[in-house]
Amino acid sequence: MSIELTDVSKAFGPKQILKGFSLRVDEGETMALVGFSGAGKSVTLKHIVGLLMPDRGSVVVDGREVPDLSREELFQLRREVGYVFQFAALFDSMTIAENLAMGLRKQGTLSSEQIRARIAESLGLVELEGFEARYPAELSGGQRKRAGLARAIAFHPKYLLYDEPTSGLDPVTTTVIDRLILKMKQELGVTSLVITHDMGSAYRVSDRIAMLYDGRVLEAGTPDEIRATENPIVRGFIEGRPELVEQGEASGAAG
User: Fold this and answer.
1) Closest to 121 measured CA to CA, from 101, 107, 102, 143
2) 4, 12, 134, 161: which has the highest count of C-beta atoms within 10 A?
3) Which residue from 47, 35, 45 is spatially nearest to 254, judged by alpha carbons?
């Protein structure tokens, strides 16, 4: 139950985004992937679920080479991967229960009663009990994020991919989301990859942190190891000090 990307390259026209990117997320681990805007973090997530295919390299999830999967095998993989979108991506015209039920109904394996039970279970896990009949517009930003997480875990996934789960949230709500990410690991045992710009959140939720820079992982380690890094580009990013980034680029620290 691991995620492993090896020597992955991806370009869009002349723009090379990933340049030999390698990363492994072990079973039960929560990995945070950090980096500057436009570095390719969301592109990485899309490779894991087969929304994008690499120009070169290997993407293996749970022992399966994603680019080699058939259409049906890809659908099966996606049922095992919960994807928490940056802005929740809820349908405004549907209630929260309807948003959660839509994917479960498409799966075609659960009865209506089982779907109702799965919805209640998922909302309970994210502390939104009794919110089934509400619409997304009736929820706060943090509640919408939690509803998006509930939809992702309703499938009982092996993996959770989080795309900027705390983006746009105040510090208190950010802490609530961080606690839920930890709760998903403890109660569901999922393997998780969290894309974030928020270093405070990364330190709180992750077993390891990797920094994506110039298409590759520049450095990876435990939160304590990342805090203690001597790489000026990594230090500049985590401390918000552009002069260190410039110093690192000038000295070739990215190589």
Assistant:
1) 101
2) 161
3) 35
* pTM for the model: 0.90
Q: State how far the Cα of 142 lies from the Cα of 104, in Å rounded to an integer.
A: 23
What per-residue confidence (pLDDT) applies to 253?
Answer: 77
What are the angstrom distances between the C-alpha of 133 and each of 55, 125, 195? 44, 17, 30
* 56 torsion bin: left (phi>0), alpha (psi -120 to 50), beta (else): beta
Q: Is the pLDDT of residue 86 over 90?
A: no
- Check residue 89 and give its pLDDT: 80
Short-list 30, 4, 163, CA closest to 86? 163
Full DSSP string of the chain: --EEEEEEEEEETTEEEEEEEEEEE-TT-EEEEE--TTSSHHHHHHHHTTSS--SEEEEEETTEEGGG--HHHHHHHHHTEEEE-TT----TTS-HHHHHHHHHHHHT-S-HHHHHHHHHHHHHHTT-TT-TT--GGGS-HHHHHHHHHHHHHTT--SEEEEESTTTT--HHHHHHHHHHHHHHHHHH--EEEEE-S-HHHHHHH-SEEEEEETTEEEEEE-HHHHHT---HHHHHHHHT-HHHHHHHHHHTTT-
User: Model confidence over 88-143: pLDDT tens digits?
Assistant: 688 899 999 999 998 888 877 889 999 999 999 999 999 999 999 999 999 998 89
At position 10, the amino acid (one-letter code) is K
Q: Judge contact between 210 and 225, C-beta under 8 A.
A: no
Choose among 6, 104, 100: nearest CA to 47: 6
